[in-house]
Each structure stands twice: as structure tokens, then as C-alpha cells.
Amino acid sequence: MATLTVPNPVTDKVITALEQAIGKEKVRTDLGARIARTRVPAPFPVHRFADYMPDVVVLPESAEEVSAILRIANQFRVPVVPRAGGTGLADGAVPLHKGILLDIKKMNKILELDLVNRTVTVQPGLNMLKLNEYLAPYGVFYPDDPASYPVSIIGGRIGTSGWSLIGSRYGHTRDLVISLQVVLPTGEIVRLSDGGGAPKVRKASTGYNLKQLFIGTQGTLGVVTEATLELFPKPEAELAAFFGYESFEDAYRSTGALSTSGLGTLAAVILFDERKVDYLRRDDEAYIPLPERIKAVVATALYGVEEEVRAAANRLFRIAKETGGEYLGDELSAGDWASRHDRYATPLHGRLPDGTVVPMSWHCEDAAIIYSELPAIKQKWHEITDRYIQKYGIFDNWGMFFYSNNPYKGWGDYLVEIDIGIWEQALNEETWQAWVNLKREITQATLEHQGSISACHGACREGDAEFIPVELREGGFELMKKIKRLLDPNNILNPSKNYLHLAYIDEEVGV
Amino acid sequence: MKQVRKGVVLRREDLHVFEVDPSLMTRVPQDVSDAEQARIVRNRWEYLDWMHRHFAQRTILLSEVADVPAHGPGHGHS
Question: CA spacing 20 to 30 A to A127: which of A142, A231, A341, A487?
Fold first, then answer.
């Protein structure tokens, strides 16, 4: 069995081969290019920055160039880590073993707009905001809407199987991709769709549905080089309505009632817990004036044809009122909703236990949890987080959100998120390990409550990844290992992510 | 300077921008001029308006549709 426990270093021979294959101008070894692609916005062990710096950055412009890079990596047995916008919160693009960093941002062309069949075919380096600016004059839009909407790019969304803020109306990334062109780890270029090979057919029963296998791989099975995407009519109208409640329990029940309302234009239901409201009342302009009696909030948003949105708004308001909700006003509702498309623009600071302000990075710990378990998981995650804050003092609990998580409906499981500020400059090895242990305890609680480790970020980070074999213990992880070995025999593509180094080691899994 | 709640102050009524109590900002002191603060606030609203237009042709407010006050609790200032 092939192994890559100690990956080969990138030598001058590798650099020369890359330069000959794709051109010198697309191969960067300068420190600036490498530093800029070492980490992502998630908390990072800055005291060990150099451990993760790639040896070389390549910027291909075509599937053929990606293929050539992967063939060279196989020849020299060096790792390749694909990177899109670098906005992920689970370290998918962090080069754990250094090596070649494959940045897809130069592959940003719109290849075909088909208004008759409502598709657009693009290269993966394109940003959704830019795509929608191009689409707007045609009255259509691509509704993949993460919190990083202005800065993340399509290839990364596919690589992480991202979640969309308005996914309960329009679907999430996996539902919006019709077909893919993928370069396999060994360099072959393949076209994959919902069974069959027709690039614009959404539903087929011919052959395996291989497209989904390549969505959410965190770049471990292939590099997406082209995607055909779903187009929707640009909504005539949007309406956001935020409601306040005097207890979390009331807001939780209201979330259930709103999510199961059956309103076709309902794009999102978001529950804010008491700690989130406390945090916002402390540090968010819009929420500072909110009276203390408001303990929890439910945010809703509608999109669609104007007549439908207006009618649905009345029903929405009636449900919220009957379940104890109080409308929080037009300014807060519309303003907060618009800001949710771009949470990465938020300047980050947090508080030490004495209330003093310090710069903090944002950690967004996510999981997929079924509705019945939300109150229990809230209690456990806060207990864990508060214990670490009390002991180490460099973390800050920013509260929890619970987002509707399923395509075309509000009910089912929820994207549960606890936001934690981390004072990165104060990190050392002891506090970093404390942080990882905090994450481990949160992950264990998730699994104890029948949840999945991640709803949208991926489970690549230390503290998450080692639990993938546990969550997929009924044969799923064994199958993942076989698929990884089959497609990537030399373990060159994003090695060790998703704990898949175990695919190349003959030993029992255990955490 | 008016204390709005614990840890929050309002320095200028006309701008109506809440700020962290300066006594809590000793580790990261900030010196932002009034003009710069006004520019940041104005640009923020312009950006949010742009975001609304980007996602839909029209933004409808609940107060246009249902019998609710336009201002929520504690937000009657603007």
C-alpha cells in the first residue's frame, strides 16, 4: 500500500517541471505569495505559522494546466492543496504538509450563459457576487449565498458543500450545481453529473450519481475546473422580519411553527439564543437599544414574486405573534438581514472577562442538529465554552445561532453555530491545545445528540477531523478510505484532510 | 458623553453612534474623527441598500404589509 507519512519536499526539479508545464509567471515561490496562502480566517496557531507555509504557489488557468500540475505531483510524490477564496472556516485550504498550493483564482471566466435552459457554465475561480452582477441584466440570479458572499468563490463552495443563507427557498450549493468538470488526483479530466453525462440535465437515472461524490470533498478527491450552475428568476421582492421573545423556549417553539408553516417563499428561519442577544446588546449598534425583556430573537426572510411575498408576510406575522413574538421594527429587520450576506466585513473585537476590549479572531463552530435536540445542545455547548473561558481568559462567548438547514424547506435539522472570539496574539502551545480540546468536547456533544460534526464548514480541523471515523463508524469511513486510495493512489491531493491519512495506514480506527 | 447602558456610550447625539465605553478601550485605543465616523456610518447604510438591491428588485417592510409599528422596542430614535 502506498504511504505518504513523510511527504517529499518540493525540490528545484519540481519547480522547474511546474514552470515548464504552465509557464514561469504562474509559478510563485516568493515569500509574499506563500504567506498569503498559509492560513484561512479561522483561528490559527500563529505561533507555528511557518509549519503550514506552502513551498510553492501555482496559478493555473485551465483544466489541462491543473492536470499537468497533478501529474508532476504524482511523479515527485509531493502534496498539492487546492485553494479557492481562502475564506473557509475549517482549514480545508491549509497545507498541512506544505508542498504545492494550487490557487484556482485565475480560473474565473464565464464560459456560457444559456437563458433558454436556465444554466450558466463557469470556471471555479469566479465569485458569486461578480457572477450575479453579470447575470442581473438578464433578470436571473445564482442564489448561493454564504456569509462570505462578497469574497468566497464557487470552487470553494463546491469543495466544502457550502450552506446558503437563503437555501430553504433555493437550495444549497450541492442543489445548485448541475454538472462538473473535475481533474482527478492522477490527472484525468472527467465530466460528472446527476448520472449520465448530459451537462445540463438536472435529474437522470443513468449510471451512478457521481457529481455528489465530488461535492464537499475539501479537495481530497479532485480539483473542480468547470461547473454548470442553476439559474433562478431574480426575486421581485424580499421581506425580512425579526421578532423578539421573552424566553428562549418561546422563541424555540416559534421557530418550529415558522419552519413548518409551508410558506413557499420562506427562505430562512434563524433563532438567536439568550447569549447571542446579550452579546449583540453589548456590541452591535442595532441591538444595543433592545429592552432587557427581549431574551431571544427569531429572524425570517421571504423571497419571490411580490404578491406571494406580501401574502406570506401576513401569515408569517400571525404565526410569530401567536407564538409570543414581538416585531423588532423595519430598521433592525432590513438592516440586519442585508448585513448577513457579508459577515466577513465585521470588524472583530472581543472582551476579556473584565470587559476590556482586545482584537479577537472569529471562530464559528458549526454542526447539523435535529430540531428536538437544539435546547440540549445549546446548554452543553455553553457549559463547555464557559468552562474554558473561566480557565484561560482569552476566549469570548458570542452566543449561538440556529439556522434552517435544509433545501426547499425550513424544518428538519438546523445549522447550529456557536461563535467564539479568540485573542490570537495571546496564543501559545498550551492555550492552543486548550482550544483544540474545547472543540473536541463540542464535537463529542454533537455526536451524543445524533448530530453531524459540520453542517457547512467541513470537518477538517483538529478537534473535528479525528471524530469523522466515529461519526461514519457504520462502514462509511471505511468506504471513504477505499475511494480515496482508488482515486489518489499516491496520496498527493490535500493529504491528511478529513483524517484520510488513515486510508494509507493499515490499522484500526480509534479516537 | 451619555452612558447608554453599562459599557456603552453615546458621544454625539446628532450622529447617534454608540461606542464602547473608553475606559474599556485602554488596550486598543482608537482615535476616529467625527467626520470619519459619519463617513463610515453613511457608507455602511449605502452598502446595505446596495445589498438589498443586489438580491431583489424591491425590499418590502413588514410595516407596509401588516399592522405593526415601523419602529421596534427601543428603536424609536431614527
Answer: A487
